[in-house]
Write a structure and sequence with these properties.
Elements (H helix, E strand, L loop, with lengths): L2 E2 H8 L2 E3 L5 E2 L1 E2 L9 E4 L16 E4 L4 H7 L1 E4 L3 H16 L6 E2 L4 E2 L4 E2 L4 E2 L4 E2 L4 E2 L4 E2 L4 E2 L4 E2 L4 E2 L4 E4 L4 E4 L2 E4 L6 E3 L4 E2 L4 E3 L6 E3 L4 E2 L4 E2 L4 E2 L4 E2 L4 E2 L4 E2 L4 E2 L4 E2 L4 E2 L3 E3 L4 E2 L7 E3 L8 H12 L1 H16 L1
Parallel strand pairs: 4-5, 5-6, 6-7, 8-11, 9-12, 10-13, 11-14, 12-15, 13-16, 14-17, 15-18, 16-21, 17-22, 18-23, 21-24, 22-25, 23-26, 24-27, 25-28, 26-29, 27-30, 28-31, 29-32, 30-33, 31-34, 32-35, 34-36
Antiparallel strand pairs: 1-3, 2-7, 19-20
Length: 324
Amino acid sequence: MTLPLGTIVDALGGELHGDPQLLIHRLAALDSATYGELSFLSNARYRDQLSSSQATCVIVATEAQEEARARGACIVTNDPYLYFARVTQLWRRTHHAAPAPGVHPSAIVDPSALIDPTATVGPLCIVEEGVRIGAYSVLKARVVVAQDCTIGKRCLIHPGVVIGADGFGFAANAGAWEKIEQLGAVRVGDDVEIGANTCIDRGALSDTVIGDGVKLDNLIQIGHNVQIGNHTAIAACAGVAGSAMIGANCTIGGAAVVLGHLTVADRVHISAASVVTRSLVKPGHYTGIFPIDDNDQWEKNAAAVKRLHQLRARLVALEKSRLD
């Protein structure tokens, strides 16, 4: 199971320095790669690993090509990380058969569901009434797509995903809870990837909407009536509460939380473990984390933070007395 370097460059472009007949047996990280393996350098922090790497070939940017050529074969490209991503796609296409279209015998599909003949529905999936699944989309094992939800073209839905479970809606009634029926659905756009065991709730009245090109990691919770703009990416264990609106081309780090009914503008980047408690109306990078620390020190700092408003009031009074 090999690819010659020349085949890779013919398919993906780039400037090859080295023998095009060299065979690549595997893709590997720069520090662990050995002969027969292809790696890449995209982050300057790892440049000191380049000269000592045993990789047969390394994908590098123009500024690193002199050093890369001194050590052996290299492929020079404007964006090594993007190039490496495309190499992984080429590798999978070459070495792994694509899932066969059709519905696995163990899947349960309602007769009213419309599944494109090029789509794949994997083992033990459940596709309920009124569902529509677009061309070339793939549902891995144990995916549930609930009533009236739609999935666009070329989507990849990983095992255990639930699309269209009821949103969390209840009205208080004399100390108990009265269910609010969730009458909307979920609309997933084209070219969306949803990681394992992620849940996307159906809308209460209107639909929950996942835009084109959105990438969701594993174990994410998307609440009812959330809207996520095109090409936004959200890392694992994040949560988006109901009716939040997230713009296009955003990134949300792992375990971050966006509270309900907030608006996040396009091109907003939220650090991991942050809690978004207000709308973010301008593009930018936002962080809201109380730094982790030794527990005793953390408790002291937390106590000080609780007294900040009192200290501020004392400081304002002191400054005013000096002015008087």
